[in-house]
Design a protein that fits this description.
With about 220 residues, the protein is α/β, with parallel strands linked by helices. The chain is about 40% helix and about 20% strand. It contains eight helices and eight strands, in the order βαβαβαβααβαβαβαβ. It has helices at about 10-20, 40-50, 65-80, 90-95, 100-110, 125-135, 155-165, 190-205, and strands at about 1-5, 30-35, 55-65, 85-90, 115-120, 145-150, 170-175, 210-215. Strands 1-2-3-4-5-6-7-8 form an eight-stranded parallel β-sheet. Helix 1 links the parallel strand 1 and strand 2 (about 30-35). Helix 2 (about 40-50) packs parallel to helix 3, helix 6 runs parallel beside helix 7 (about 155-165) and helix 7 (about 155-165) runs parallel beside helix 8. The radius of gyration is 19 Å and the shape is globular. The model has no long low-confidence stretch (mean pLDDT about 85). InterPro entries: LRR_dom_sf.
Length: about 220
């Protein structure tokens, strides 16, 4: 396992890491937590993803990631054949998901990925949960998905329930510290049965789900 933590502004350490990454063909786990995922590191990481024969776990956390650098990482992920566990935190989760169809295409076509963890940088980040939830309607090999610190709209809550009923690969689905309503108040137009019934239906239809984690604040006492 290799853990990289960089919070420096100097370019030299980033260049050194970028040069070293493609040579680590037998590395099994990589955790990269940096202030900025610079273009040079992303290029080195992309080369590693393409060349590796052993990397199974990749964790990326960054406060800043440009769209251009995200494209480079995504290209490496799409060409990778070994990663089974992918964790994207803070800016990394948002910017990669901003690639839209390209990121969804990666999730849908990947035959190795089994575990996906997405952690938000902001409670205003509504792009990631929507994209991930919609991608899970397609046949996938993913068996475990975790969303952390995301806002969930009422529509997305229904989508999650529908997806759980249709998906045929998920065994674990975790929604951690995800507020269903930003104001912590339920819409007056929705009755309790309207909110909870899609979930009950999903539990009855799901043939694979074994574990579900959600915040009880998403539902009221009656539900």
């Amino acid at each position: 396992m290799l853990e990289v933590r960089l919070f420096l502004t100097s370019v030299r350490p980033y260049n050194s890491i970028s040069t070293a990454l493609p040579c680590l063909n037998h590395l099994a786990e990589l955790y990269c937590k940096v202030a900025r995922l610079e273009q040079c590191i992303c290029e080195g990481l992309s080369k590693l993803l393409v060349r590796t024969i052993s990397l199974t776990t990749l964790k990326l956390s960054a406060r800043h990631l440009s769209n251009a650098a995200a494209v480079v990482i995504l290209d490496g992920l799409k060409r990778n054949r070994t990663v089974t566990s992918l964790s994207l935190c803070r800016r990394a989760s948002l910017v990669l998901c901003q690639q839209g169809a390209e990121f969804t295409d990666y999730l849908r076509k990947n035959q190795k990925l089994r575990r996906l963890i997405m952690r938000s940088q902001s409670l205003k980040d509504v792009i990631v949960p929507t994209l991930v939830i919609r991608s899970l309607f397609s046949p996938l090999t993913l068996s475990e998905v975790t969303l952390v610190d995301f806002p969930l709209s009422n529509e997305n809550s229904r989508l999650v329930a529908e997806m759980l009923g249709e998906n045929r690969s998920l065994r674990e689905y975790h929604i951690v510290r995800c507020l269903l309503y930003r104001t912590n108040r339920f819409p007056k137009s929705d009755s309790s049965s309207d909110r909870i019934s899609p979930w009950i239906t999903a539990f009855a239809k799901s043939a694979t789900l074994e574990r579900l984690t959600t915040d009880l604040s998403c539902f009221n006492l009656e539900e």
